[in-house]
Amino acid sequence: HEHGTHVEGAGGEMDQRFTEGESEETLTTSQGHPVRNNQQTRTVGKRGPATLENYEFIEKISHFDRERVPERVVHARGTGAHGYFETYGKAGDEPVENYTRAKVFSGEGKKTPVLVRFSTVIHGKDSPETLRDPRGFAVKFYTEDGNWDLVGNNLKVFFIRDAIKFPDLIHALKPDPVTNIQDNRRIFDFMSHTPEAMHMLTFLYSPWGIPANYRLMQGSGVNTYKWVNEHGDAWLVKYHWEPVQGIKNLTQEEADELQGKNFSHATQDLYESIEEGNYPEWELCVQLMEDGEHKELDFDPLDDTKLWPEEQFPFLKVGRMVLNKNPENHFAEIEQAAFGTGVLVDGMDFSDDKMLQGRTFSYSDTQRYRIGANYLQLPTNSPKKHVATNQRDGNMTYHVDQGPNQNPHVNYEPSSYNGLEESEQVVDYHQPYVEGKLQRSEIDRTNDYKQAGERYRTFEDWERNDLITNLVNSLKPCTPEIQHKMVEMFWKCDADYGRRVGEGLGMKFKEDGTVDTEFAAEITPTKGKLPGSVG
Ligand code: HEM
Question: GO molecular function of the protein, one example (predicted)?
Fold first, then answer.
């Protein structure tokens, strides 16, 4: 549809009549009235007062009063771009169809339009982009089978493995509800009770916690999904985006320096690169595992605090993504964009990963609140193929999602009066057999420290040094009890790791590596004392 160029009436189209001095470029109200004075409010006499019936003014100011929608509860600060995904037609050396029948991967050189949004996680929508924080990497594929969203982060693992802990994790990381200041005492209070976070913390407090910008970072789906082929066979799959531009991370010192000059450097970098025709590109790789528990592994393949060792589960390239178009309007296309882990296409399925299952409820739920019940009618979110539903009405209904030949009276199914009908496509569903006691319990192979220790040892020296400095500085304001607990956990990851953080905090270690009791004696219980009231 076009605005303002013509009006359709009962008698067909008629030309918009412009009075003299008006054209299509003339400023109007949203009601289409030409605006003749946009500088002065209508007032009684030159000096006022203003009058309430001034529709033009009220329309303008009240729309302004409603310019914001609630920002995302996490990942509020972000930017994005459009582009395409192009298939290789293979997963490594094998035809990709052996593993998935998802059409978005099939054939060679097939392009699917995408929308990507990059973000930081914890702070508000205008916060600095230099902060230590995971980076979001969300991709919406507008595929021929409808939308597929791959909602990932730059880091390949996460803090927790059960969605029920997410609100607590985020509350600990977000500003204190009293002081409104992010507080390491609260963060490490939570982390000291969360051994599964050690792997993520080891990444996050190293330079990997501050990517130089969005172009120079990886992406990962983090959670374990499934691929389903035409026979209904399933594979467990993890997704990874590898930047063709390379990877670059910042030390805390470099980030501090940059933040003093520009707190939107990552947004600016992406926007300007695309404007200059320097289009960023990522290759999409997958790791595959036969569906199953894999008891032979020392971790659970559904545990998102773990990496799947690359030697055992090689990265198989399946395609590449190029970002080549900036949004025309940030709010319409990026702020209102809605990504969710539930948005899969045929040939993909959910695994029992408890984080993935919780996330899948959370995203669409928050979007119905953040944007509105009809958020999928917005052009940025709606699939680029036909949509025909029996869903009707609700706040801000923009159009009726009806089929071209659907009887508009029939918004239900089944019907004999030309309503919508189910697809006749026959597919072999993936039908996993599930049996078990309904219970709340931890998974068996928690193995919280091993991969964190491996990570510590494979870092380069400068990365390890920065990690230690950052942890020591961040733990300084914490109580000795929390410091001790954290050091003990770093110790369990790697003795050198624990020792260096502990020594940085002034702890003395005995020969056998345990902390000197003199230090332990200083440990005072923090129970009942709020961090905000310390001192
Ligand atoms: C955004 C929930 C874990 C990546 C969000 C939003 C919610 C949410 C409510 C805001 C969405 C919106 O307003 O549109 C959760 C829950 C999690 C979880 C409940 C754990 C149970 C993760 C993990 C990742 C991740 C593990 C990384 C793989 C993202 C990204 C965004 C986001 C990238 C921003 C999407 C965008 O750019 O619009 N999450 N999240 N989240 N989350 Fe999660």
Answer: catalase activity
Assess whether 171 carries a catalytic annotation.
Answer: no
205 is in an annotated binding site: no
Among 130-134, 382-386, 467-471, 514-518, which stretch is predicted with the lowest mean pLDDT? 514-518
Q: Is 75 a catalytic residue?
A: yes
531, amino acid identity: P
156 lines ligand 1 (CB under 6 A): no
The neighbouring-strand residues paired with 459 are: none
Whole-angstrom distance, CA of residue 211 vs CA of residue 467: 14
Backbone angles phi, psi at 33, to 5 degrees: -80, 130
DSSP single-letter state for residue 64: H
Report how far residue 437's alpha carbon sits from residue 494's, in angstroms, rounded to the nearest whole number: 37
Which residue puts its alpha carbon closest to atom 14 of ligand 1? 338
Of ligand 1's atoms, which has the minimum distance to the CA of residue 162? 21
Best probe residue, ligand 1, of 147, 151, 302 (max atoms within 8 Å of C-beta): 151
229-252 pLDDT per residue, tens: 999 999 999 999 999 999 999 999
Per-residue pLDDT tens digits for 252-262 = 999 999 999 99
